[in-house]
TrEMBL record:
Residues 44-145 form the Gfo/Idh/MocA-like oxidoreductase N-terminal domain. Residues 1-33 form the signal peptide. Pfam families: GFO_IDH_MocA, Glyco_hydro_109_C. Its cofactor is NAD(+). GO terms for molecular function: hydrolase activity, acting on glycosyl bonds; nucleotide binding. InterPro entries: Gfo/Idh/MocA-like_OxRdtase_N (IPR000683), Gfo/Idh/MocA_oxidrdct_glycsds (IPR050463), Glyco_hydro_109_C (IPR049303), NAD(P)-bd_dom_sf (IPR036291), TAT_signal (IPR006311). This is Putative dehydrogenase.
Length: 462
């Protein structure tokens, strides 16, 4: 029942065993797609982790005629029951289930026995790498929730397994499909901002009521200051990362869109990284205010700085700034800024300034630009995305995985994107631990970034 601890030798052994025979060779630079003989029209999919996020993604899968949800695995019977009830309500056949006995390795049985084309992984972060590696070794395509792994070695292991097996792998980074984010991608490609110079993004989301609750499954947000075994949903596992780690813990929502704009791994790459962390006050203040100074959790020392600021340099001269801000009171904002020689967009005010179009030194509202530069995906599927999670973007991220897998086409957010975006976490931890040192960013593509086509696949299909 205990998950692999964040850096335990037991976990390393598990990973090494699971990559045995594959070797840990440097990447060849080519992402292999396991192309089927003929494009498929229907997929048998499974899901590991049917918690709160898994259920949102499951809803999208159950709406699709081209998907059979054949198998579900969760070690929390209440979460599994909720997912089964969703399948029943949708009028779908009952998926086979694993994990009722709370065996944390039950997913291996599911992957071996369920005859799946692909699997969605929506478990706690520490499980993502071993589960993705196990699935790819069994030739089951992977759609993995953010992040790809915990340690830097995890990221190499996930990458090497993908390269060795050719099994498709997509990071399910939904913010890349946000309506304004994709409209800005069109604007970047049309040259509206001129040559890109600087990008910003982040994860600025007050998670205090996610990291602590009472443990009551009916009230997953707030209402208590428990975490770990006494917490429920993310409080059960996510909060421990704030106790043990200091770094940019959730980079992909911010870096994903910035990497698309800057064509990372498609003619550009990250070359350097450093990170600064502020003091840690917010979580302890919250626990003391909500639970009282005598509550045992009031004495917990959280390692995660309240504001972690990470800087990246890119081969083509752009800088990227990310901010992780989850422990203080604030309204939600990912804080995007896209700035080039001819102007900039900032999402916090939904405003834009383009030289020659906007009045000098003044902001313009973004909406008319969004309408004019609407991405083909949104033009085609806005109605289908209506009501899907996170303003519709959860429809698109599942749609992309399913359509690319059916077509045997490259995944739009591929293994190189996944590992580089996600490796920002261990690299930022390392930078902070070494006195905010600037580190070289590993080239996961082994030079292939120079010749890969300057696109993220996003077209009107996926
Ligand atoms: N992209 C997004 O917008 C978004 C939003 C929320 C969460 N997430 C990500 O989704 C993932 C899941 O988050 P969540 O909010 O659903 O958390 P959750 O705690 O609600 O769900 C996780 C589920 O995994 C199950 N689980 C744990 N270990 C398992 C194992 N060994 N085998 C099978 N099941 C196991 C748990 O019982 C739980 O039901 C995380 O990686 C999180 O970062 C992404």
């Amino acid at each position: 029942m205990t998950p692999p601890s964040l850096k335990s030798p037991q976990r390393r052994a598990l990973l090494l065993a699971s990559t045995a025979g594959l070797g840990l060779a440097a990447s060849s630079g080519a992402v292999r797609a396991m192309a089927p003989a003929r494009p498929r029209t229907r997929l048998r999919l499974g899901m590991i982790g049917t918690g709160l996020r898994g259920q949102v993604l499951l809803r999208e899968l159950l709406r699709r005629e081209d998907v059979e949800v054949a198998a579900l695995c969760d070690i929390e019977p209440l979460m599994l029951a909720k997912a089964l009830a969703m399948a029943e309500k949708a009028g779908r056949p009952r998926p086979a289930t694993w994990g009722e006995d709370r065996d944390p390795e039950a997913w291996r049985q599911m992957l071996a026995k369920a005859g799946l084309d692909g699997v969605i992984i929506a478990t706690p972060w520490e499980w993502h790498a071993p589960m993705a590696i196990g699935a790819m070794q069994g030739r089951v395509a992977v759609g993995c929730e953010v992040v790809a792994g915990i340690t830097l070695q995890d990221h190499w292991d996930v990458l090497n397994t993908q390269l060795q097996t050719g099994t498709p792998y997509m990071l399910l980074e939904n913010v890349c499909y946000r309506r304004d984010v994709l409209a800005v991608l069109q604007m970047v490609r049309a040259g509206l901002f001129g040559e890109l110079v600087h990008l910003q993004g982040g994860y600025q989301h007050d998670l205090r009521a996610v990291k602590f609750n009472s443990g009551d499954p009916a009230k997953p947000y707030g209402g208590g200051v428990e975490f770990g075994p006494k917490g429920w949903s993310e409080a059960r596992w996510r909060t421990e990362h704030s106790v043990q780690r200091n770094g940019e813990l959730y980079p992909s929502h911010g870096i994903g869109p910035c990497a698309m704009y800057a064509n990372i791994h498609r003619g550009n790459r990250f070359t350097h990284i450093n990170a600064f962390a502020s003091k840690a006050r917010g979580l302890q203040d919250y626990v003391q205010a909500q639970g009282g100074k005598d509550h045992p959790n009031a004495r917990v020392r959280f390692k995660l700085g309240d504001i972690v600021t990470t800087s990246l340099a890119c081969e083509n001269g752009e800088t990227i700034l990310l901010q992780h801000d989850t422990s203080l009171p604030r309204p939600y904002s990912l804080g995007f800024r896209v700035q080039g020689t001819k102007g900039l967009w900032m999402d916090v005010n939904q405003s834009i300034h383009i030289e020659g179009r906007s009045k000098p030194h003044q902001w313009e509202p973004f909406q008319p630009y969004q309408d004019r530069f609407e991405h083909p995906l949104w033009k085609k599927h806005a109605a289908a995305a209506e009501g899907a999670g996170h303003g519709g973007m959860d429809f698109f991220v599942i749609h992309a995985f399913v359509e690319a897998l059916k077509a045997g086409a490259p995944m739009p957010i591929d293994i190189y994107d996944a590992v580089a975006w996600s490796a920002i976490t261990p690299l930022s931890e390392q930078s902070i631990a070494q006195g905010f040192k600037t580190l070289e960013f590993p080239d996961f593509t082994a030079g292939a970034w120079k010749t890969r086509k300057p696109i993220f696949a996003f077209d009107e299909r996926y």
